[in-house]
Structure formats: C-alpha cells, structure tokens
Amino acid sequence: YLGINVNPENFTPKQGLYYVEIKAPIGRNMLIDARRVALQQARYLRELNAAEQVKIINKLLLSAVKQYWEWYQSYQKLKIQEEGLALATFRLNAINQAILVGDGAPIDSVENRLEVLKRSMNLQEAQIEFQNQTLLLSNFLWGEDNQPRELPSFAIPYPYDFSSLELSLYLLDSLQNYARFYHPEIIKQQIKLLQYDLERKLRMNELLPDIDMDLKPFLIPHSEEYGFTQPYDAFYWRQNFKIGFNFYMPLFLRKERGKLTKIKLKIQQTEYELLNQRREIETELSVSYNETKNLERLIALQKQTVEYSQRMLEAEQIKFENGESSLFVVNRRERSLLAEKEKLLELQVKYAKANAQFYFASGIPISNFFK
C-alpha cells in the first residue's frame, strides 16, 4: 500500500491540491505588539484628556470666582463711600442750620463743604470702578446660544457672611489625601507611567526570538484512488498537512536593548516627577491653608479696629457737640473709620480669594460647588 504522502509528485490528484495556510507567532508578538500597545495607549489618552479638562475648567472657574470677589469689593466700597458722603452732607446741613440761628462758626461750613467735595470725588471713583468690574465680570457670562451676555445695570452682589468661613486641619488633611491621587497633575503623571509601562513591555517583547509556526492543511478532492472514500476521514487529516517553524533573532540585540534602557530611564524620571509633584501640591495646600488662617486672624483684629474707630468717632462727636473738639477732628475720625471699613472689606475679599485658591490647589473639581 502506497500512502498518499509517500511520493506527492506521483500521486498528486489531477484536480490539484488546495490548502489553507495558518501562521501564528509563538515567540515575539504573541502576547503584545505595537498595535495592541497603541490601542491601549489611546484608551489612556482619553483619561488623560479628562484630567486636563478638569484642570482647564478649574482654572477658568477660579478666574471667574476671583473676578466675582473683585466685583463684590467694588460694590461694597461704593456703599462705604455713599455712607461717608451721606454723613458729611448731613453734618453740613446741620452746621448750616446752626449758623443760621447764630450757633455755629461759618468756617465750619467751609470745612465741611470741603469734606463733602472730597468724598464726592471718592464716590465718583468708586462708581467708575464698580462699572468697570461689572464689565470684567460679564466676560464670564455666555448664553446657551454661545453668545456673550452682560450683567444688567441693576445687578448687585449678594450680601455674604464671612464669619461662616473657617478652615480646619481636618479639611486640610482630607484635601491633601484627595490631591495625592486625584489631582489632575497627579493623574496625568500616573497615566504617563502606565503608557511608559506598556512601551516597556513592548521593548521587552522585542528581546524575544521571532518564531512563527506555519501550518498548511491540504484539501485533496474526493477520490477512491488512494484508499479512502470520504474526504474527512481521520486518516485524511493525519496525513495531509505540512507544518513548519521560522526562527529569527539578532545576535547582539543592541537596538532593542537600547530602546528598553531608554524607556526604563523615562519611567524612572516620571516616577521622580510624580513624587516631586505630590510634594509641591501638598506644600501649596499648606501654604494656602496658612495664608487663609492668617487672614481669619487679621479679619478678627480688623473688626475690633473698626469697632474701636466707631467708638472714637462717637466720643469725638459728643466732645464736638459740647464744644470740646473741632469739626476737623470729627472729620478725621470719620475718615479713619471709613478707611478701616475699606481695609476690613479688602481683608475679607482676600480671604474669599485665598479660600477659592485653597480648593483649586487640591485639584477637586470646582464645578461640583455650582451644581
């Protein structure tokens, strides 16, 4: 009995031979290759873009919040100047009435009219500043149709109680723990490490030999000439195939080892950058926290200063009414009170900005506070 594979040249069927070639790597590129690495890196790139989006939105909202507090400060300063002008005008009218009945010095009227003029100028400057800050704040207003909007002329900031703001060490620890893993910059560094690790695996894969298994099952047409009647007999599948292996490997692998060393250095550099980034974020949070707590103490002291200035003004007013003081001293005390109120307002606005900066430094999405 002559098998069909003993001499294929003599026993090849007249219909010819058909075969399906199957190739599969069993060495290099078996578990990982450049296309699979590129696909996985693209998935990481989507997470990288999400972290960058949070960073950009946070930066934009922080600018908007700071501009809002500038607008708030200009409005409150305007109210202080209006209060000062109203007090000076009221005192001027009272002095004029006293002069008419012969109970006042005419020079006091000149003195207080000068004070009214000065405060009118200050009020005018405050009004211009408030208008400008309103325009600057309008830059952050956009409609659903992507058209810019402007604040209406009657818009004013909502009164805010700064006494409700107070940071704690527990909050600092919580935000530092959050920032250590979820800050956008930390996420970006972590994703870079994952991408580099994929590339490292690819470079290690290139050190493996290139081995391909080649399998060719022959499909011989149905024939009784070779001792079987069914084309799918077990004997048919055992006899009619060809298998082979292709082996390739460079002798020194200089190129592959160089690429692997390069990506290992990149991974090491990124790990150092990640550690340094975490340290910088924690330091920035601590600095922002200390600044905010210091402003809390300054605000408390400034409130006492305003209170004492108010008492001094009231005492000076009583002395003036009793003839023991002059109008010049009363006006000076009043100007001092108005200046201390403006300083308190400035500290409160600084506190609000520092508080916003504190949350921004943690990387927590600020948009969560506006939902």
Task: Provide a descriptive summary of the structure in words.
Strands 1, 2, 3 and 4 form a four-stranded antiparallel β-sheet that branches. By secondary structure, the chain is α+β, with helices and mostly antiparallel strands. The chain has helices at residues 8-11, 34-100, 106-138, 169-182, 184-205, 234-239, 254-321, 327-362, and strands spanning 18-19, 22-25, 210-219, 241-248. Mean pLDDT is 84; it is low at 226-232. The chain starts with 7 loop residues before the first helix and ends in a 9-residue tail after the last helix. It is built from eight helices and four strands. Helix 2 runs antiparallel to helix 3 and helix 2 runs antiparallel to helix 8.
Fold topology:
Layout: H1 8-11, E1 18-19, E2 22-25, H2 34-100, H3 106-138, H4 169-182, H5 184-205, E3 210-219, H6 234-239, E4 241-248, H7 254-321, H8 327-362
Antiparallel strand pairs: 1-3, 2-3, 3-4
Number of helices: 8
Helix-strand topology string: HEEHHHHEHEHH
Number of extended strands: 4
Distance between the termini: 86 Å
Structural class determined from secondary elements: alpha+beta
Structural Rg: 41 Å
Which residue ranges are poorly predicted, with pLDDT under 50 across at least 5 consecutive positions?
226-232
Quote the average pLDDT.
Answer: 84
- Overall form: rod-shaped
- Tell me about the largest β-sheet: 4 strands, antiparallel
Q: What helical percentage do the residues reach? A: 55-70%
Quaternary: single chain
Strand content: 5-15%
Question: Could you name the key traits of this structure?
Answer:
single chain; alpha+beta; 371 residues
